[in-house]
């Protein structure tokens, strides 16, 4: 993440529009401060392209707001579905270009770290594991003042890395279940297998928290850890 000066007072309750399409589903939320004014989700897979903009319009209607009332837009950058990530970021870019709204990204790692902090108050590190399919996991480690680079690992590699961590460790995310049996016997380890789905309401609240701390979100760009399967071949 990068820092920048906001035009808002640090304690001002901003109206934030947030959405996630990176996880093969779609959710949209609008908040003012920590209060959620509207929340809509649809878990129908692979329908984000047709559903996102109507869901945003519905959320604005439910909140009795228009785009002119929104001060900040937050969207997930991944990792996740390549197509879903592109849909969300393209929509965010279009909204920002056609308005005075400021915007930025939070990763799926960031949101699950935020949720873990809400559930466990005393810890040394949070290890977020995301299902990367193909018997692999995306992994990122958060501490009080640290944030590792995200990695793509085999199950055994992820287990070894977690076992090397010191102190009270939280393990969370959609990939936690795949290594649960190998980690459950470790001391000072807290596994949070629930609440792994990314919801736009949590994006709103974490974005509001960060912005009031004068911490900027990441730029509007994708977080791709695994390269795309499709290869571009040059014809002579």
Plain-language structure description:
The chain has helices spanning 48-63, 82-97, 108-119, 155-163, 176-183, 200-212; strands at residues 15-20, 26-32, 35-42, 72-76, 102-106, 125-131, 136-143, 151-154, 169-172, 189-192. Helix 1 packs across helix 2 (82-97) and helix 4 crosses helix 5. It folds into 2 domains: 15-107 and 198-212, ATPase, nucleotide binding domain (Nucleotidyltransferase, domain 5, 2-Layer Sandwich), CATH 3.30.420.40; 109-192, ATPase, nucleotide binding domain (Nucleotidyltransferase, domain 5). It is of the alpha/beta class and 236 residues long. 31% of the residues lie in helices and 25% in strands.
Summed up, what is this model?
The protein has six helices and ten strands. The protein is α/β, with parallel strands linked by helices and 236 residues long.
